[in-house]
Amino acid sequence: MKDWRLFGVVPPDPIVGAGLALAATCFLAHARQLGQLPASLCVIAFCGLVAIRRRRPVSVALLAGALIALPAFTHNLATVDDNRAFIPIWASVFLYSYTLGSGSSLVPSILGLAGLIAGVNLSGGPFNPVPEMLTLGPWLAGLMVASRQRASIALGERAKELEDEREVFARESVRYERARIARELHDIVAHSVSLMVVQANAGERLATVDREGAAEAFASIGDAALQADDEIGRLVEMLGDSSPASPSAGLRIVEELVSRVQASGLDISCQMSGDINDLTAEGTDGAYRLVQEAITNAMKHAPGAPLGISVQGHTDELEVRVANGPARHASSGLEKSGGNHGLAGMRERIVQCGGSFEAGVTAVGGWQVTARIPRHPRPGRIRSSQLGIRGEGAATVPRVP
After folding, report:
1. Which candidate in 11, 280, 373, 398 could, as Cys together with 355 as Cys, close a disulfide (CB 3.0–4.6 Å)?
2. Would the CA dihedral through 200, 206, 207, 213 be positive or negative?
3. DSSP H or E run through 336
4. Within 10 Å of residue 278's Cβ, how many Cβ atoms?
5. pLDDT at position 181, please?
6. Nearest in space to 305 (alpha carbons), one of 278, 326, 281, 320
7. In angstroms, rounded to a whole number, what is the distance separating the alpha carbons of residues 295 and 203?
8. At 376, is the secondary structure helix, strand, or coil?
């Protein structure tokens, strides 16, 4: 029962019950039947019970039915000449019936309604359809109101659940977007920094014996820094426009990437065959970033190793393969940098394109990554095989011996 209060002080039910009991007392006194005990007390109590009808609707209705039926065995109120005496009685019947429908479950409310109707019929002498009309109508109305209240509560709970889900989704979206930005920055910065370190080491060795070669090495460092600046600028544009960052020149930009790496003195080759242009923007970006990250990993974990890149266009897919041999030079210390997220980032990019990704140790002790990217990916559930990486320790890029 809701604690409705009049002026914030007194609940209205006691006021209604007291008012109906007072009206019944006045009408009985006017009809000169107030002194007929216990009939008059039963009628007054019948009206006064309205004050507590919400607390125990069924019990109060049954008690009220018994009280209104008791005068039939002592004094018949139907003989009262002043019909106004029945106003508080019928008003009480209306309120009891409505409360049974709105405040209790179906079966108990039917039991209470039957007791109330029986008591009213017994108090009225011969059969009269008026009690049934004054009870069934309010009772049905109460059932309808209770149904609407339950629906309203259910809708409120569902709205709360949806709001909670929306907040969870918003937090997850922010987390994913942060991870995506971190991945982009990792690919850009790690590649450029690795080139700078390689060139810095080369420039340091050549500084005393080959000044021209040292100058070229330091110039390559500047070029790598400029390239990083350009790619970070493109990342900023992507974040501002909410569009995926993809190389504007398609996969031909891979050749530019290879040329820059070759200019730094690394042993790298690139072979492209078939149709490599008909690819989605997301697939193009995934292929480019995979090549970039594979080159970075090779410089980190296999310094001096030859690196081969193969891009083959097939009818329905594009295959990108990057393989490097075992390390030929001493460690540069780059393998200790980064958070070992490069391989996971490559895999995530390719899977998001609807493709498959594999990585593992080659037969000669090198490392190879292979991606197959569909030209027109179909929406559907990602197969677990698309996430496969061969060999132990594949979650991170191990140092190639």
Report:
1. 373
2. negative
3. none
4. 11
5. 73
6. 326
7. 20
8. coil
Contacts of 358 (CB under 8 A, 6+ apart): 369, 370, 371, 388, 389, 390
**Start-to-end Cα distance in the chain:** 77
- Average pLDDT over the chain, rounded to an integer: 76
Which residues are CB-neighbours of 400 under 8 A, at least 6 positions away?
301, 302, 305, 324, 326, 327, 361, 365, 366, 367
Question: What's the rounded Cα separation, in Å, for the pair 162 and 109?
Answer: 34
Single-letter residue type at 250: G
- For residue range 32-69, list pLDDT tens digits in order: 777 777 788 888 899 999 999 988 999 999 999 888 88
Tell me the domain boundaries of the chain.
Answer: 12-128, 177-387
Q: With a cut of 70, say whether residue 299 has pLDDT above it.
A: yes
Q: Is the pLDDT of residue 76 over 70?
A: no
Q: What is the DSSP string of 267-291?
A: -EEEEEES--S---HHHHHHHHHHH
Angle separating helix axes 57-69 and 87-103, nearest 10 degrees: 150
Omega of the bond leading into 379 within 30 degrees of 0 (cis): no
- In one letter, which amino acid is 33? Q
Question: What does residue 369 show for φ and ψ, rounded to 5 degrees?
Answer: -120, 140
Give the homologous superfamily in CATH for domain 177-387.
Histidine kinase-like ATPase, C-terminal domain (3.30.565.10)
| Nearest to 138, CA basis, from 112, 158, 156, 164 | 112
Q: Which long-range contacts (CB under 8 A, 24 or more apart) does 198-203 make?
A: 198/264, 198/265, 198/266, 198/299, 198/303, 198/332, 199/224, 199/264, 199/265, 201/332, 202/264, 202/265
Record the tokens describing residue 242, joined without a space: 């909410």
pLDDT in the model for residue 43: 86
pLDDT by residue (tens digit) across 111-143? 999 998 888 888 766 666 777 777 888 999 999
